[in-house]
Amino acid sequence: MNENQKKHARKKLFLKIFGCIFSAAGIVLAVIGFADFFGAAAEADMPDKFWCVFAGFPLLFIGIAMLLFGFRKEIARYIKDESAPVLNEFAEDIRPAVRSVSSAVQEAKGERACPECGESNAADAKFCNNCGARLKKICPACGGENDGGAKFCDQCGASLEE
Fold first, then answer.
1. Better-scored residue on pLDDT, 33 or 126
2. Is 83 left (phi over 0), alpha (psi -120 to 50) or beta?
3. What is the dihedral of CA 137, 91, 117, 154, to 10 degrees?
4. What kind and span of H or E run contains 98?
5. Cα–Cα distance list, 138 to 10, 72, 93, 118, 128 (Å)
6. Interacting residues of 58 by C-beta distance below 8 A, sequence separation 6+
């Protein structure tokens, strides 16, 4: 660990320790002030420690702010770890739609995508120019033409697997 990282780690430790201290002091003062207020109200008396609330809330705010800055990296890592699987699942869900739109754009340009490598090929090509994969499959049952990545015939439903 270099000197800058050590200084940064010390600052974070300072923020974490004093954030806890300030937060605890703020909570204690606020509880004392509210207890005095409600206790005095129950006895129809004037509260004498209600000032603790006015000292406690700023201390609590400062403590929470220090804790947020001290734990910023841990919070960001947690958010990343919670968000990444959701984003990956979303990407998997929309992948077929993106491929469909991509194929439609290529067809409009007079091209077709290879089901293996995704390379653009001429619309009438039977094999990929990049990887040699079959772009069209002929159904052995009905003779219908299908996409190279199809497993079953579009016309009759027969298996295209060899």
1. 33
2. alpha
3. 10
4. helix 72-108
5. 69, 59, 29, 20, 16
6. 26
What's the maximum distance between 2 C-alpha atoms anywhere in the chain? 97
Lookup: tokens for 15 = 């923020």
Do the Cβ atoms of 146 and 136 come closer than 8 Å?
yes
Residue written as tokens 């990296």? 73
Taking Cα atoms as reference points, which of 66, 33, 67 lies closest to residue 47? 33
Whole-number Å distance between alpha carbons of 22 and 33: 16
Which comes out higher in pLDDT, residue 78 or 107? Answer: 78
Average pLDDT in the 119-135 region?
84
Name the region of 109 (left: φ>0; alpha: ψ -120 to 50; beta: rest).
alpha
Residues 6+ apart with CB under 8 A from 145: 136, 137, 138, 139
Average pLDDT over residues 70-94: 92
